[in-house]
Each structure stands twice: as C-alpha cells, then as structure tokens.
Design brief:
Largest sheet: none
Shape: globular
Structural class: mainly alpha
Distance between the termini: 21 Å
Strand content: under 5%
Number of strands: 0
Number of helices: 5
Helix content: 55-70%
C-alpha cells in the first residue's frame, strides 16, 4: 500500500495497523468468510470498503485488551493480540486518513 495518504503514516503507526488488520482478518475469516475475503482483497489493493472500514473500527474498539486500569480498577480483556487504547486510536486515525468516517 503506497498511496499518497499511506506515505504520511508513521512507520510505527503502519506497523500497528498491519498487526491489527491481520488479527481482524483472521477472526473475521472464522465467522464470515465472504466478508473476510472481500476485506482482504481490499486491503491487498490498498484500501478497505466503507463496510470493511466500519467493521475494523468496531472490532478494534471492542477488542481493546489493555484498558490501562489496574486489577483493582478494571478488567484486563484476554485476547489473541494485545490492543491498547492508543492502538485503537491509531487504527481509527488511519481509517480517517483513508477517507472513512469513524
């Protein structure tokens, strides 16, 4: 993905997006193969459809695993990948940079 918008993404943000998109596509594949195939095809072409972008935004929000709370203040949500609130904001920002409403 080498679009002009993509070139403005910091390398560390790009790595976060790639890591989380891979996890999202893997999970989506288990639940909706057609949606996963469409999303993967879009990702490989350099962008996501609006539906896929919204699904990714919702997924990353729901999967935040590191809440920043201590054990006394709140839960740690177990998951296959560690997703911090900052990671969520990175993905949301990347989606907005791609022209999606988040």
């Amino acid at each position: 993905m080498n679009s002009k918008r993509e070139q403005q993404t910091r390398p560390e943000d790009r790595a976060t997006v790639e890591r989380l998109v891979a996890a999202w596509l893997e999970e989506t594949e288990r639940h909706d193969r057609t949606a996963a195939h469409e999303a993967r095809a879009g990702w490989e072409r350099g962008g996501l459809s609006e539906r896929a972008a919204q699904d990714l935004a919702t997924w990353v929000t729901a999967r935040v695993t590191d809440t920043g709370f201590t054990e006394d203040e709140g839960p740690y949500v177990a998951g296959p990948v560690r997703i911090t609130p900052s990671d969520k904001e990175t993905v949301h920002g990347w989606l907005r940079n791609q022209g999606h409403r988040v």
